[in-house]
Known about the structure:
Blueprint: H1 15-22, H2 27-37, H3 39-46, E1 53-55, H4 57-60, H5 65-78, E2 85-87, H6 94-103, E3 109-111, H7 119-125, E4 134-136, H8 145-154, E5 160-162, H9 176-185, E6 191-193, H10 201-210, E7 216-218, H11 229-232, E8 239-241, H12 264-268
Parallel strand pairs: 1-2, 2-3, 3-4, 4-5, 5-6, 6-7, 7-8
Amino acid sequence: MEEDSEFRNWDELIPDALGLIFKNLTLEETLTVIPRVCKSWGRVVAGPYCWQEINIVQWSKFRSPQIVDRMLQMLIARSSGSPRKLCVSGALDDQSLLFIADHAKSLQTLKLPRSAVSDLIVEQVAVKLSTITSLDLSYCKTIGAPALEAIGKHCKHLTKLQRCMYGWELDKDSQDNEGFAIAATMPRLKHLELRFMRISTEPVLQILLNCPELHLLNVLGCYSVKIDEKFVKKFPGLNVVGPGSGNEGWDDCSTFSVSSSYLDWDLMGCVINNDDYEVEYDYFDEDEAWEDDQSMADVEFSFYDGFYLDNAGFDWPPTP
């Protein structure tokens, strides 16, 4: 380009600026398309500039734990071990959380919905996650009060907690001990979502009394919670959602509109009938995304326009 031109080449943009631009692309585009444009863009994708915020929730929903683990390891390594935000859905087990705690020590936001981590591993690694301010452990059936107590004890800066459950499991065991753990160890909470948790009134009252900075409490679907409207009005900065449409007076003090990054059937507790629904997904050749020493030659992948949810439990639809 001539020196007197008023325009500059895209490849001359500083890596930080390119990283901000590439954040608007999908995971597939970032990993497989951008590196082919030019070498400078490829270096940006291979470095930490694109991976300070890692969000692979949609991509990870229908992948096997092994595939998700390998993607996490690669992206956290590219971030130079310093991502501020990490969001991944399902598939995670104790070893995955241990890896995250050991190699992503600057996390501020951690979202692990549907993970299969245990109380024991959370108690072990909570001290390494002390920088977290926002945590999502929704739909995690393998943890309970011990995990929440450990998080509250070590994550002193935690201001947002999401611990929602499935609406069709209301007949399961009580989760009051989780509510008491939150009340006893998380006094700095400002945002708390407990949708469809199986809790009663007493732990919710303790949360309100022990968390003076709380401005949003979402107990939608917690039908055992009975709180008088006059009591709620003692907390002028508090917005309450729930527990159900039959609770008169709650709507008057609830100004928060429920929203979530989860699919609608997660919120409403609906079961997908695989025979009635067809969902299309765009996939990319994951073999191109891995580092050279992480070749996936042992697995066959192909491009598909979409597939039925009957195949959702597999890494990829079978080759026709």
